[in-house]
């Protein structure tokens, strides 16, 4: 990928073992690991020399979070060569080291007499994972529809129930006007009957 002068990709370096993929923190540690574990001796970089600037990259040394840089690059422990840490990184790094630096086989028992000098894995094994930066953390808060409705819904005022008029109980002992007239008529009839009966009794006595 080619970058313009206005833009330089931010990269940080890893130092993986090109045989087993283990990532070490420094170039010297990687050189020691390759000799002690795999039996190959490599020369280190010249002391006091700094990595030359690159027109396409900005070097981020010792980043604190993952958002401090854009990509990992796998670096050779013996020179300034580096390549992106993708699925082909260990193969590219092994080809470079074997062709350019020609490692010395000082312990053939550790590499099966020199037959193991290429990657045995297809990925780097990071022992340290950087935490994500603030820019990488998304804080999306989702609210349910019920909560939204509760916030937007207005509380309706409580309406008082109208008092129902109390129904008056009908007094069963109270007589209606028609019943009263009927009683008077009955009493009048009884009175007439009684008077007629008395009149008949008096007339009978006079005849005797």
UniProtKB/TrEMBL annotation:
Domain C2H2-type: 17-38
Chain positions covered by the region annotation Disordered: 101-177
Lineage: superkingdom: Eukaryota
Bias type Basic residues, positions: 153-169
Feature: compositional bias, Acidic residues: 133-149
InterPro entries named in the record: Znf_C2H2_type
Protein name listed in UniProt: C2H2-type domain-containing protein
Species name: Mucor ambiguus
